[in-house]
TrEMBL record:
GO terms for molecular function: 4 iron, 4 sulfur cluster binding; lyase activity; metal ion binding. It comes from Dehalogenimonas alkenigignens. This is Pyruvate-formate lyase-activating enzyme. The lineage of its organism: Bacteria, Bacillati, Chloroflexota, Dehalococcoidia, Dehalococcoidales. InterPro entries: Aldolase_TIM, Organic_radical-activating, rSAM, rSAM_sf. Pfam families: Radical_SAM (PF04055).
């Protein structure tokens, strides 16, 4: 069975693996994939190895290949991440196989534009790019309405749900982050929300987010939500050890 998976990384410290899926249904202007298609949390030595890698995968893996590789690691947690995992037509079969073979916690990272079967997904983090329709349309090429509707469906599905947004100076600023938080609070103010910094990608004018800007955003949106945190963008906080790479 073919999958859209092209890259696997392992983090021994947390007994977890991350699977990167090829293909996306948005065209975000500041997408980090513009800087490279492999895991951006790789150690420096591994990043150098992939520095001259192609801008598209050389191959996609069969499910049996993925299972064989993970069988060596027997992960406790499996992250299904992107580009966009929900586009894999065999998503339901993939997550079911992970539950059956590893009894793993299956964690989906998604832009929320599409909602796959949740039967074998335990946790979902929806990356909400913006909530203002015109801004979302301009930045992603897609309407925000399906994202909002699916976020409500995720909240009602019974999975553990979190949300995250990238604070982009000059584009998705603190006021927009507040609007996103208000939308989330209207569903459930206890949904955890993460404010993330922007790292410049592609030919864009936006600069990297400053730690104090993330801190201010966290303080502001904490008026609406009970569980808010932010990544300051410090290198040692975002890198993890990678043992194996496919």
């Amino acid at each position: 069975m073919k999958t859209n998976i092209y890259h696997i990384t392992h983090t021994p410290a947390t007994d977890s693996v991350s699977l990167r899926f090829w293909g996306c249904n948005m065209a975000c202007l500041g997408c980090l994939c513009k800087e490279g298609i492999y895991d951006h949390l790789l150690k420096d030595d591994d990043q150098k190895y992939f520095a001259n890698a192609p801008n598209a995968p050389e191959r996609l893996l069969d499910l049996d290949q993925v299972l064989d590789r993970l069988d060596e690691l027997n992960p406790r947690r499996i992250y299904l991440t992107g580009e966009e995992a929900t586009l894999d037509p065999n998503y339901a079969a993939i997550t079911k196989a992970f539950h059956e073979q590893f009894n793993s916690e299956n964690v989906l990272y998604t832009n929320g534009f599409k909602m796959p079967s949740m039967d074998d997904t335990d946790s979902v983090e929806v990356g909400i790019k913006a909530i203002t329709e015109e801004l979302h349309q301009w930045y992603t090429g897609r309407s925000a309405e399906p994202v909002k509707n699916n976020f409500i469906r995720y909240a009602r599905s019974g999975v553990r749900l979190t949300a995250a947004s990238i604070l982009i100076p000059g584009l998705v600023e603190i006021a927009e982050i507040e609007r996103i938080a208000q939308f989330i609070a209207g569903i459930d103010r206890n949904i955890p929300y993460y404010v993330l910094p922007y790292f410049p990608a592609g030919e864009n004018k936006w600069r990297k987010t400053k730690p104090e800007e993330v801190a201010e955003a966290v303080e502001r949106v904490s008026r609406y939500l009970t569980n808010v945190s932010g990544c300051q963008g410090v290198k040692k906080e975002i890198l993890h050890e990678v043992e194996r790479v496919v």
